[in-house]
Amino acid sequence: MIHAFAFRFRGPAGGLAVNLRAEVAPLGGGTPPHSMQIHRKIWLGLPASGLHWKDAAWLAFGVSLNAGTLSELVPDGVLVLASSLDYPLSDYRSEAAALAMDGWLHERFDLESSGAAVTYDASRGGFAFSWGGTAGPFSDAPP
Fold first, then answer.
1. What is the distance in angstroms between the CA of the first residue and the CA of the last residue of the chain?
2. Which of 7, 23, 63, 106 has a CA between 20 and 30 Å from the CA of residue 117?
3. Are 105 and 90 in contact (CB under 8 A)?
4. What is the rounded average pLDDT of the residues 2-13?
């Protein structure tokens, strides 16, 4: 069953809005078609309508923030199948896709917070994202 999540953040000079619709499917056997492995048996399927590469990358990162916990919760694995991602009349930063996925997972699985958040910091030029214990998303540098 598809579950909708609306991420909203209002800043002093605009805000971020992302609507995510997704569902959970059992892995069954083998690699799910048209999907990407996030962690062990945690997979992400992208919308059939396609997605900008930055949105896809940040959606995957949003899953990765919770992948360890999901692996423990669902040891047989899970496919998170995103059916749509849109951003209605808002400022948009692709990082917000990660926050939408993070929020969706927290609602769907009743998970503890990953620590992912956004604030508005005028001194840093606008929206400032933080990722809990994760620093430098998409970096291959050693921790």
1. 38
2. 23
3. no
4. 92
